[in-house]
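Dear colleague,

Following up on yesterday's call, I've attached the two folding results inline so they're easy to grep. Please treat them as preliminary; we haven't cross-checked anything against experimental data yet. The first protein's sequence and structure tokens come first.
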Amino acid sequence: MTDDRALAGDLATAAGELLLDVRANSGLAGKELGRAGDLRSNDFLLERLRAQRPDDAVLSEESADDKSRLSAPRVWIVDPVDGTREYGTEGRSDWAVHVALWSSSGGLIAGAVALPALGVTYVDDAEPVEPVDGLAAEPKGETIRVVVSGSRPPAFSQAVADALGGEVLQMGSAGAKAMAVVRGEADAYVHAGGQYEWDSAAPVAVARAKGLWCGRIDGSELVYNRDDTYLPDLVICRPEFTDTIIGVTAPYA
């Protein structure tokens, strides 16, 4: 049987390939394309998980929340298209597919984030990632970058950048922003004002495995498979920047 990490990576990659096909051949655009992609990817992921992990529960952005997951020992947390608006916009690469596995005994134990438009999938292993460009419009250079939501930048965005002596970079998709830090295109990702477990579970699993610090804006731990799936804030950063960032963000918690 395929191990959980490999399965997460395979599923995220295959869902991403399906989404690229829908994007190229459906004749749809904008919100209609986003909705079609969400549904197709969700159906694919649920079907594959039922076939390969029939005893596990699933929490998906695009499916009704089956509360039996709260007593399940293993729960897959998936976002079939993270960054639906960016996916529906021609030429945008900052969207992702998230597949994570939560265990009652170990928290997040597997995760994968696919960036289909870039043809790459990151999994929760300790393999180093060489710095690479592609998500941001401009190469990074030496300046410290703090990546934030393009549609909902937190009120403290500039204050965090100033504290680090850096600049703010806006980008779509939580997965893309998290992977920008993993890829070395940014040094920190900060968010406040609304997310759910499926937005951050897979990115956090990958980022932690790559040696990044992940937590809430008050410095507390991220907790998954809760009754209320709302998890409104997030920090992913290089470990040496953690104290400086939390010093700025904690008062906003």
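Below is the second protein, in the same order (sequence, then structure):
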Amino acid sequence: MAQPHVRRGVKVGEAIAQDIVRKIGAENLQPGTPLPSEAQMIEEYGVGRGSLREALRILEVHGLISIKPGPRGGPIVAQVSADTFGRMSTLYFQAGRMTFSELMEARLVMEPVMARLAAERRDAGMAKTLGAIAEDTPLDDDGGYLSHSGDFHRFVASMSGNGMLDLFSGSLGYIFHERVSGLFFPKARRAKVRQAHAEIAEAIEAGDADRAEALMREHMQEYATYVKRRQPALMNEVVGWR
């Protein structure tokens, strides 16, 4: 029996959860991979059903596994996503009374840095895809415009080559847009946004890190100013747990 190493002050359920996460990483288990059954893990760890279920519940709440119901069900490795991380983060943001103004400020710091990194670490194929996302952004279709705009920023984050920045920025973007759903530039100004995205993409493709960073900062500052003007009370609102 592989008893989990339990550090002082850590519950058995938490120690098992930590061990399961280590195994997922060490064995490079992909999303959708079934984990051993409850009975197998009880035998493996030599613990009671309550401790094991506590461990699985911890991982499920944090979005690292899902539980498939039914006789042939059980724990399955989940896809780590910025949305899940964002929802989890809102609990701490609310407890710490952090505001949307602070969230926006964090995005204003992170997004230009990621644009710089994307240019410094540019991948020719990804840069062309980024340019196509900007070029293909529809102006008259609200859903299409919002989808392409979000895809553009997420793709820049992925091009940064920094997984933590990618995850953090994606989670902040998710939280913000969940709260201000439907608040985006009016159709009359969308062409300017599309042009800004195109120029950022061109700077990244050219490997011009200074220009990519400056353009992204200008673009994000313009959006922040627009949101503050349209919803001034939002900036002092505490981020709520979702």
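For the second protein, one point worth flagging: The first strand starts at residue 65 and ends at 68.

Best wishes,
A.L.
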